[in-house]
User: What shape does this take?
Amino acid sequence: MKNIRLFLCWSKTKLLRIVTEYKKACYITMAYCISSAFLLMNVDAVNSIARGEVVVQAKTIRAGRIIGEGSKTKTENKTNDKEVEGTKENHLAEIPIGRPVKQITKTFSDTVNKVNEEKASDQENKQEEYERKTTEEREEAETSRINQIKAKEEKQRRERARKAALDRYKMDLCSSERKVLERIVQAEAGNQDIKGKMLVANVVINRIRSSRFPNTVKAIVFQHSGGTYQFSPVQNGSIYRVKVSKETKKAVSRVLKGENYSSGALFFVARKVAARSNLGWFDRSLQRLFTHGGHTFYR
Assistant: This one.
């Protein structure tokens, strides 16, 4: 008796384990089908799985599921036994055994291939975009380098031109000539800025270089015709009374080093204080260049 009981207990445990494993297998199969259907967004497949149409093997079908969706009473089941037996084979024949699973598997495989192709295409697009950006950056760097070279060459060219201009107008004067130049600049443009002072000194230097005038500062500053001097401070004697400022000395020093902003001017006049007759001669006989401070320059 004891052995029989042990055998029955063992059989019951074994049977329960088999049933449990079978249920697990069914649940896993159903979960795989449903997840595959959701992955593929195949609503029809999900509905088919929900209705129980995806079946690998169908040995038995309950009469209540074949006849209809609702519940039926025992009386109706007994009454319709014959009808069920007649239609059972037809329903079994209509169930697409295994076909939706194959379709889902094929669609899943196609989708995976499509996803892989899209990933490969995205990777190619990213690579092309990276190469395009790299090429653009390389071209921009090359353009920037060329522009820097051109800017450097242009700067060097301007520096050479500036030095050439400085060398052209550069002049060495003895101390006495320099003092005369500083005094005439102070007397003519003492109330102007440093550029106004430099322009007066430029006119004196331009005259030295011109064949129309003497070739020394003293000869130019004290040049006269019929008792009338070229520069009014010499005429009225203010050239002897002025005190040369530091800014005037600086302006003269820059001019003697070659700085020249006069555009070749040989004459200048303070139109506000000059006589009308003198202004008429300037306007008729000379070319007007520009005005700076209180002086208008001519050549």
The two ends are 145 Å apart (CA to CA). The longest strand covers residues 288-292. The chain is about 70% helix and 5% strand. Confidence is low (pLDDT under 50) at residues 53-75, 87-99.
